[in-house]
Amino acid sequence: KGYFSREHKMAGKKVVVTAGPTRERIDPVRFLTNFSSGKMGYAMAAAAAEMGAETILISGPVSLSVPTGVTLVQVESAEDMLQAVEAHYETADYVVKTAAVADYRPEAMANQKIKKQEGNSTIVLERTVDILKQLGQHKKNQVLIGFAAETNNVSQYAKDKLTRKNADYIVANDVSEAQAGFESDTNRVTIYGKHGFEQAFEMMTKQQLARQLLELITDKEA
Ligand code: CTP
Ligand code: CA
Questions:
Q1: What is the pLDDT of residues 141-156, one digit of tens each?
Q2: Closest to 22 measured CA to CA, from 83, 85, 79
Q3: How far apart are CA 129 and CA 125, in angstroms?
Q4: Is 210's C-beta closer than 6 angstroms to any atom of ligand 1?
Q5: Are strands 143-150 and 94-97 parallel, antiparallel or unpaired?
């Protein structure tokens, strides 16, 4: 298989993939997070590497092994992820934002374990930086691919995110559907692009889907 074979369509390209959840610390023993397993993001990184790309995988805490040929950068919080992505952004050809980044973090982290007291308690939250939106604002030739897990109004929310974040594609899935959620090995998505581009995929494994998504995107961007 040669350098320019169909199998190595992404040869010479640098792909940055973010995956998994982020953790936002409350105190030394507690944090806020979400149900992201990292499976879709790891599958995207594996597919990019198989297609010949130099692949950087910036991952929140997950229990998955690093795919062959992929460079792993481990991060914890949304802020860490932002910094890691920014360090690679300039030289990236494709940025695939599969990560489920926390939208809020505790305004302050307690340095000592918070002790329980009588009655209720309140944690004050502040917004994290929207990494994809930030990348969209400073986009040069990079192709930006976002992911959106929705429970309702999937197409409307996906299209909103495409414009709001200046992304090139949003891959959306309905997590209320069986076998298309966070822990699942399968997924069923619709990809939305500029100029009203829209394509629905069948239910398939996250590995197969990752490959088909990257094939589609590289063909369209060629
Ligand atoms: N994203 C990001 N930084 C954030 C939040 C989201 O980069 N702080 C990215 C995700 O990695 C994903 C895309 O934006 O690729 C869409 O994430 P999603 O949570 O669906 O979008 P939000 O704008 O946070 O909207 P929502 O209110 O639906 O959570
Ligand atoms: Ca969000």
A1: 999 999 999 999 999 9
A2: 79
A3: 13
A4: no
A5: parallel
Query: For ligand 1, is residue 162 a contact (CB within 6 Å)?
Result: no
Ligand 1 centroid–CA 186 distance in Å is 21
Q: Structure tokens of 132?
A: 């994809």
Atom in ligand 1 nearest the alpha carbon of residue 99: 11
Q: Which tokens go with 126?
A: 């502040």
Beta bridge partners of 59: 19, 74
* Structure tokens belonging to residue 27: 């105190």
Ligand 1 atom with minimal separation from the 102 CA: 8
Rounded to 5 degrees, φ, ψ at 215 are: -60, -50
Position 218: which residue type? T
| pTM (2 d.p.) | 0.96
pLDDT-based confidence at residue 86 (cuts at 50, 70, 90): very high
- List Cα–Cα distances, 219 to 95, 204, 215, in angstroms: 16, 20, 6
Instruction: Give me the chain's average pLDDT, please.
Output: 95
Task: Determine whether 173 is an active site residue.
Answer: no
